[in-house]
Amino acid sequence: MKYLSLKPTRSLWVLAVSVLACSIWPVAAFPEGPPPAHTGANGQPDCSVCHFAGPEPTANSGLTITSFPQEVSPGAVYELKLQLLGPEQRAGGFQVAIVNTETARVSVGEWIVDENQRIDSENDIVYLGHSEPKSAVHDDGSGEMLTEWILRWRAPSENPGPLRIIAAAVASDHDESPLGDAVYVFKTSLNDE
């Protein structure tokens, strides 16, 4: 009487799990945009729950948002520049929210969506994020790879009070997996009284 060996079955099982894991990674990398509530604000996770094991940041690496007004005027539209610098990034993605500092749980103003951007919301906070990754270019000034976006935001019609801008971004190696990506977070206050 011959007995069947379990080794081929176990090998097939390991192969099947490996194929499944590899097929899930591109989905886990969120190339179509991040899920809502991943800015790292108010106890939320940031992009590092899905993207990790990226290169160590250099002194020039990081996430910045510039072109802030000194004081927000009701109803005005502002163009903010989000810049992501990473040593080995090939593409980038982001998510940003502007909330009232006093409540920290309610969005303020309105995002104006541009090409390759999208809006999501969760628990009274509206998030602007990428709808597809954007390719990085070499930045001669920093020596890093740079991805940047223009964000357009309309202030509310009444004085919004003190504001907090929270953003998270991924400097991706663009291999359609969550491995090898670096995550950066940015937070600042505006309109402080």
Describe this structure in words.
The chain is 11% helix and 40% strand. It has a single domain, classed as Sandwich (Immunoglobulin-like), CATH 2.60.40.10. By secondary structure, the chain is mainly beta. A hairpin with a 6-residue loop joins strand 9 and strand 10. It is built from one helix and twelve strands, in the order H-E-E-E-E-E-E-E-E-E-E-E-E. Strands 1, 4, 6, 7, 8, 11 and 12 form a seven-stranded mixed β-sheet that branches. Strands 2, 3, 5, 9 and 10 form a five-stranded antiparallel β-sheet that branches.
Summary of the model, kept short:
With 193 residues, this protein is mainly β. It is built from one helix and twelve strands, in the order αββββββββββββ. It has one domain: Immunoglobulin-like, CATH 2.60.40.10.
Keywords:
193 residues, mainly beta, Immunoglobulin-like, seven-stranded mixed beta sheet, five-stranded antiparallel beta sheet, 1 helix, 12 strands, 11% helix, globular, Reeler_sf, signal
Reconstruct the topology from this structure:
Blueprint: H1 7-28, E1 52-53, E2 62-66, E3 77-86, E4 91-100, E5 110-112, E6 117-122, E7 125-130, E8 134-135, E9 137-138, E10 145-154, E11 163-172, E12 179-190
Parallel strand pairs: 1-12
Antiparallel strand pairs: 2-3, 3-10, 4-7, 4-8, 4-11, 5-10, 6-7, 9-10, 11-12
Signal peptide: 1-29
Keywords: Signal
Protein name: Reelin domain-containing protein
